[in-house]
């Protein structure tokens, strides 16, 4: 696996990384999987129109948008936006344009609403 550095990520080097399944329309590349008390750090890649259902943050979540636009009930976040979601907050997430985000979770989130087919 290539070294994951800030320069690699912000220069588009994430395009060379391997992503695996996460949720329907969203893939993941783990930089640091959850391990004990260590937070999880990953890249999430949303296809156009992909979403993650309403969920609760059991710990702090921070996001840096690397490409495209990520949205939630509070607004739209374009490339370069830094988002902080405090423990206990809830929202759903989607991307009308498709996007790639760098995300760090202190703890896994709890899904509150599953998508219905």
Short description:
Keywords: Hydrolase. With 117 residues, this protein is mainly beta.
> What class would the helix/strand composition place it in?
mainly beta
Shape: globular
CATH architecture: Sandwich
Provide the CATH top-level class: Mainly Beta
What is the string of helix and strand elements? HEEEEEEEEEE
Fraction of residues in H or I helices:
under 10%
Name given to the CATH homologous superfamily: Jelly Rolls
What fraction of the residues are assigned to beta strands by DSSP?
over 45%
- What's the domain count? 1
The overall average pLDDT, rounded, is 89
Total strands = 10
Q: Rg, please?
A: 13 Å
Amino-to-carboxy terminus distance: 36 Å
Largest sheet: 10 strands, antiparallel
CATH fold assignment: Jelly Rolls
Give the number of helices. Answer: 1
Pfam families: Cupin_7
Keywords: Hydrolase
InterPro entries: ChrR-like_cupin_dom (IPR025979), RmlC-like_jellyroll (IPR014710), RmlC_Cupin_sf (IPR011051)
GO molecular function, one term: hydrolase activity
Describe this structure in words.
By secondary structure, the chain is mostly beta strands. The chain has a single domain (6-35, 44-106), classed as Jelly Rolls, CATH 2.60.120. 4% of the residues lie in helices and 50% in strands. It is built from 1 helix and 10 strands, in the order H-E-E-E-E-E-E-E-E-E-E. The protein has one helix at 6-10, and strands at residues 20-23, 26-32, 40-46, 51-56, 61-72, 75-78, 82-85, 90-94, 99-105, 110-111. Strands 1, 2, 3, 4, 5, 6, 7, 8, 9 and 10 form a 10-stranded antiparallel beta sheet that branches. A hairpin with a 7-residue loop joins strand 2 and strand 3. Pfam families: Cupin_7.
């Amino acid at each position: 696996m290539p070294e994951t550095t800030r320069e690699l990520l912000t220069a588009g080097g994430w395009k060379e990384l391997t992503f695996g399944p996460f949720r329907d329309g969203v893939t993941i590349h783990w930089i640091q999987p959850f391990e004990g008390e260590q937070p999880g750090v990953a890249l999430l890649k949303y296809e156009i129109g992909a979403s993650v259902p309403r969920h609760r943050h059991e710990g702090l979540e921070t996001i840096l948008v690397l490409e495209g636009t990520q949205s939630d009930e509070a607004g739209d976040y374009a490339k370069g936006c830094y988002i902080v979601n405090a423990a206990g907050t809830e929202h759903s997430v989607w991307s009308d344009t498709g996007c790639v985000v760098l995300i760090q979770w202190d703890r896994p989130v709890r899904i509150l609403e599953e998508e219905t087919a």
